[in-house]
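Please, does this match?
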Amino acid sequence: MASGAMMSYRELGEGPGDPLVLLHAFPLNGRMFEPQMEAFSEGRRVISPDYPGFGRSPRTPAQPDIRYYAEAVRNLLDHLGLERVVLGGVSMGGYVAFGCLRLFPQRVSGLVLADTRPEPDSYEIKENRKNMARRVADEGVGVLVELQMERLLARDTLENNGEVVETVRAMILESSPNGVVAALGAMRDRPDSTPLLAEIAVPTLVIGGEEDAISSPEVMAAMAEKIPASRHVTLPRAGHLSNLENPEGFNAALKEFLA
């Protein structure tokens, strides 16, 4: 397989600050970072790619591993001429960010790990991913709306923030079935990143939603404890997509971190 695909991406802003590259959650795309692109593009470039098979990126030709997505990020940095970046990832974006740290740690000047976890999948989660992949292959990506919405979003968001619910639903439906199945396989077989945590030598923001059922505040706190130069923030009124559900809180924490 070719080393990493070329990904479609959004870019906004310019300035002296290290560029901020934001890696999206499954099964969304780079559009999920619109609140951050608007907030941080005054003093730096902000870039949010779509993984192969998500958003506007063509699907991957075979079953990739997490390294494949990390290589795609490296290709994008090369294409844009970016030597060092602040790298952020939400959920699957965190898994890809760990892959980037394995491949090119010298190009990462700061790290944002949001609503993610370092451990590999348990047997039960692996089986769930296999079943989800089968259903998407048989029924299309619409089935993810039914399977994922209540896991991705806090109850408060689901009940009181129709705009975010609709945005998330629309992004899910922009994914290709092949891209979704490929990402599920890559996440299912991803390596354990726990040993990597103690080696992270750059400032790191660990941030997540108070109501995240997938990467709970306890999981995030335990991860932050193992990263030498890290700060842990828990956001109220947010689930697994904390940057979308509580953008004010997320942006305030990120602003302080980048300063």
In short: The chain has one domain: 9-258. The chain is about 45% helix and 15% strand.
